[in-house]
Amino acid sequence: MSGPKTSVLSPNFISYSGLSAAQKEEWVNREILFTLRNIAQSQKKLEAMLARVEALQDPERPDVYIQELAGHVRAFQASILENAGGGGPSQAALNKAKRAGAIDVGYYSRPSLSKTELTGKYRDFYESLSDKNLEEKTQIARELAVRSVEMKKELRRLELACWDVEQSLKEEVFQDGVRTSFFLPFRALEDREGAEKIIGKINASLSAAAELILSDSLLDKLAALKKKASGITDASCLDDFYQLVVRPFVSECEQYDRFYQEHYAEYEKLRTEVEILAEQLHLLPQEKEFSAESLEYYRAEKARLEKLRLDGLSQAFLREAVDEAMREMGYPLVGERDLTRKNGKKYHNGLYQYKDGTAISVMQCSDGQLTMEIGGLDLMDRLPSEAEAGQMVGEMHSFCEAYEKIEQALAEKGVESRRVSLCPPDAQYAQIINMKDYRMVKPTRTISEAAAARFDLGDLKKTMQRED
After folding, report:
1. Domain limits at 32?
2. Cα–Cα distance list, 361 to 333, 352, 394, 447 (Å)
3. Quick one: 197 and 95 in the same domain?
4. Which of 159, 202, 207 is nearest to 180 (CA)?
5. Residue 116's pLDDT band (cuts 50, 70, 90)
């Protein structure tokens, strides 16, 4: 039976060790190019960070910490490609990077990149690897992936350090052991007599909050609190101000600090993983300040991106496996197109030459469903003639055995196939495929042109026989 055939394909990924030498070489080269591009992008961010740090420095009163921070940034810049090809990071570091998603030794497709996208030392470094063997290149690819992850973590650490410096420069000096940015002088009070005790209580509470880790939103609340305090003129309002404003604020600061100590490491890990996944998928991740809401966001976003990545890897793997199986069976790709239905499902439709003037239409859905049909080729939308329908029914019969061999070829490539429906050959399934709807990659004759060529050849043979 060989009318339309529908199966559901699922990838059984081939391990890296199962690839051919040529596939391994291609994989490693793409991986190195991809990671070098990411490192180059991080390098630009690092240069911007250095400019930001140096802008904080007062030439007349150089700050030692800022000098050390700038020196650390420069040293890190100089060491970016240092480990690649040398001793390299430890296996523990490699395993850690692999868990973070930076290394995937399974077979998958990176977007096509060219070394022309690299400039300067990154391009020089890539070209210097041309004389390396596959084993050396594989190790370098993994080391570079670890360096890329290290750069992201270092950039995050430098961002926090820079933020700390900027905040410290905004603050006033310490006064009587209390940081003045948290100190409320209550200068507008008309009569301070008897109010020193409650003022001391307020500032003692705020002094404790000054030692905690605070979010930007809490610092904004502090600014609002200070503004409110500056307008208090009556000392009798101070106790209410302490109970209704200061204590809830300090309590919120303490809660945030506890939450920070318990969950910030997870937040940083999730944010790094989301950034890595987003880069691999060529998406721009949202930056969210640390909070309970952002923690939930990054947890959900990681799961969403991992699913997108797996779906993408599955589709790339299945599409490549189908294409290879069809080529090995002697059916070259002649055209293709991508479709999106109203329900959101995405399809890849490939046309593979079957006979002269006919093709196998292979429709692959994003959910793994695959449908193969025989069709005549033309340059317009139309129904097949009775003679064309009869020809295609004959080709449907011959495709029966071929379909089973395609399934076997897919199984050898790690693709499991579960048949959903196999329709018998019938003229009702005969169709004409409009090649104008496809991106044609190889010239091919229409079913009419093929029929005319056969007719001309038959006439030629009859003429030759009469002459004999």
Report:
1. 16-170
2. 10, 7, 17, 15
3. no
4. 207
5. low
Mean pLDDT of 275-290: 76
- Closest alpha carbon to 351 in 286, 233, 437, 235: 437
Is 156 a domain residue? yes
pLDDT at res. 424: 85
Domain count of the fold of the chain? 3
Q: Which residue has the tokens 């296996």?
A: 91
Burial class (CB in 10 A: 0-12, 13-18, 19+), 445: middle
Q: Same structural domain for residues 117 and 155?
A: yes
Which residues, listed in sequence order, are joined to residue 421 by a DSSP beta bridge? 6
**Per-residue confidence (pLDDT) for residue 104, from 0 to 100:** 37
Cα separation, 80 vs 294, in Å, equals 31
Same domain, 244 and 124: no
Tell me if 349 is assigned to some domain: yes
Handedness of CA 437, 439, 441, 443 (dihedral sign): positive
**Confidence band for 161, pLDDT divided at 50, 70 and 90:** low
pLDDT of residue 33: 80
Q: Each residue of 167-182: pLDDT tens digit?
A: 555 444 333 333 446 7
The mean-pLDDT minimum among 14-28, 136-150, 383-397 falls in 14-28
**Do residues 22 and 166 both lie within one domain?**
yes
Radius of gyration of the chain (CA): 34
Please give the C-alpha separations between residue 38 and each of 96, 147, 157, 198, 305, in angstroms, as whole numbers: 19, 10, 18, 56, 18
- Cα–Cα distances in Å, from 231 out to 59, 194, 203? 38, 19, 16
215 and 70 in a common domain: no
Tokens of residue 101, six digits: 């998603």
Q: Residues 112, 231: one domain?
A: no
**Segment of 93-102, 172-181, 319-328 carrying the highest mean pLDDT:** 319-328
Q: Return d(Cα 260, Cα 263) in angstroms, integer.
A: 5
Domain boundary residue among 140, 155, 170? 170
In a domain, 384, yes or no: yes
Write down the pLDDT at residue 399: 87
Mean pLDDT score of the chain, rounded to an integer? 76
Domain boundary among 117, 149, 170: 170
In a shared domain, residues 299 and 391: no
Could you read off the pLDDT of 398-443 as tens digits, one per residue?
Answer: 888 888 888 888 888 778 778 777 888 889 999 999 999 999 999 8
Query: Is residue 117 domain-resident?
Result: yes
Same domain, 161 and 181: no
Yes or no: say if 377 and 358 are a contact pair by the CB < 8 Å rule: yes
Contacts of 424 (CB under 8 A, 6+ apart): 1, 2, 3
Length of the chain: 468
